[in-house]
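Justification of resources, computational component.

The compute hours requested in this renewal are based largely on the per-chain cost of generating structure records like the one below. Each record pairs the submitted sequence with a full structure-token output. That output is archived, and it is also reused by downstream analysis tasks.
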Amino acid sequence: MSRPPLPLHALRAFEAAARHQNFTRAALELHVSQAALSHQIRGLEDRLGVRLFHRLPRGVLLTDEAAALYPVLHDALDRIAAAVARATAHGVRDVLSLGVVGTFAIGWLLPRLHAFEAEHPGIELRVQTHNNRIDLASEGLDAAIRFGDGDWQGLACTPVVDTLFAPACAPALARRLASPRDLARATLLRSYRGDEWPRWLQAADAPGIEARGPVFDSSLALAGAAAAGAGVALLPLRMFERELADGRLLQPFPVGIRLGRYWFARLRSRREREPVRRLRLWLQAQDALDPA
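The structure output for this chain reads:
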């Protein structure tokens, strides 16, 4: 005698809870109460005969059985949703949620967004900015643009934009900087990555100068402070081409170094949907047209 099928509402409850690793956020997404969602998951655990979550003071943790089930179920539900969308489309667009580090969003993506829209009218891109710290699963994102070395656990990463880092500051301050060693008398604005100034100073043959300026959580904030005359910022030059071109920022020294890249990242545990693949290939093609 065959076993009755598992209830779809319980499977959806499990998938949302596993993706968010939080029952409250999953319940909000599914428009049910947390108690109802917990009841559905308990019923699914009883039907399967396995425990799916370890309940923690904050959120939940997947068991080994749940970790094996989640990617298969997520992929299946994703395929069902895509098939239904195609069958009922009548002009409906594929939604792609993208988390983008703010510096990349303002300095590189937004000026080119019209080109993506023109080439891919069937994709509705929803952009959420972040400061390079992001959890794709818990925030329900299809992909993200991050800066770094591309070695992030659980993520499949593709390099999309490379850039040199170099000092930049307001014109009045730039005129007082004849050589890199003059930075010893300037305020060096810092990011939370503490090795950046030492690496640039070493490359510029000016080691030993200590950066003591305020710390900012994004290059956008660093650039704003530098343009206002607060000090010298070490910036990814390709993200601030407009500010450098119109003279709001000047690059006092020609030395530039590579401190990382911008990467297109998605969860390894999820199948790459067609809109995600198209965006990844478009980003790579754009960078090939305008290399560093």
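The domain at 165-245 is CATH 3.40.190.10 (D-Maltodextrin-Binding Protein; domain 2). The chain has eleven helices and eleven strands.
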